[in-house]
Amino acid sequence: MRASQVLKSSVASQADLFESMVERIRALAPEVASRADEIETGRRIPPDLIERLRDIGVFRSCAPASHGGLELPYPQTLELLREVAALDGSLGWVSMLGVGHMPHLALLPRETFNRIYADGPDIIVAGSAAPAGTAEIVEGGYRVTGRWPFASGCQHADWLFAGFVVTRNGEPVPRSPGSPMPLTGHAALPASAWEIEDTWKVMGLKGTGSNHIRLNDVFVPHAQVFGYKDKSCLPGPLYGSALHLIPPLHCSPAIGIAEAAVSHLIELANTGKKQLLMTEAMRDSVIFQTELGQLNARLRAARATARTQADELWEQALNGGLHLSNTSLLADCFQTSTWVTNECVDIVERCYRLGGGSALYSSSPLQRYLRDVHGASQHAAVQPMAYTRTGAMLLGHKVAHPVAD
User: Fold this and answer.
1) What is the fold of 125-226?
2) Residues 184-208: pLDDT tens digits?
3) Whole-model pTM above 0.85?
4) Which one, 74, 150, 351, 401, has the greatest CB density within 10 A?
């Protein structure tokens, strides 16, 4: 068989695999919907649902083929995560992070990476990138101490990582001579090494189990520490810059939640529901039809914008352009994902309002979609500062990111 024929066959089989994964995710919809209360009251995703996604292959989508992973094109991985989020916002959120944190591990030495993936490709990674800990320099590594918030999915993770400020004799080490910025890094350890504090009592994304994690003077060898500027230990387009992949990941759950909200609003209208003091059913109201049409257009625009950004990011990755020095692309990623997420917030808010008084009840998915999408919009990856960086770039200023600079 010629090389071109092999390539075509590989692409076709990968497309078939992707479609099969999408179908298997969608098949979970009735069960996940029936367990919404269980997810919220338990404040974590039930372990058996995580195992179902693991069996489908969701958590190996970004893992390298050299270690048994699927190494899917990045736009396909984002589509899978959007499908999961359409089932349940919390399930989509922990899946997004469990998958999206994998490229961070590629910044570790190859020997460490090989050890982590020695038993298979379905490794789930959780953590907190914020440098909320300290790492005192000692022989062979660091003594790490800290308490980190928002470690989504930490209860079912195999490995966790967390950010720290490097110290020597208790004082922060500057990033470079004379720099006001401290040197930072991330410690990666098996889940068994971390203490989990039960702190996740919140309004939105209740089922993500985004508790605090803690280390107290734990030795971490150099081989289990990474920074965003470290060279990836893996070849391939997915592993050029973990930082660039973060923003598109974080708008995927918001899109899935918005899709679920619009779908539920359509179902609600087709029950024959009438809004208070209205003489005709919602589905027969020209005003409601106009509102629904506008929501659908905005949702399609948000999806298309996210997909265009993902395609551009992937094209850059395939051409070797995915690296920290590509700060313009990094700014674009953060700007686009911020806009998409905020657009999804507005879409879900409007669905909630159109749902009427019944949307207030805990039995209505609309109130959960509203809480979850607002929870997703609070993440640092989709904050308005992204617009500031893009505006500065358009005005000819140097564009940098606090981590990449």
Assistant:
1) Butyryl-CoA Dehydrogenase, subunit A; domain 2 (2.40.110)
2) 999 999 999 999 999 999 999 999 9
3) yes
4) 351
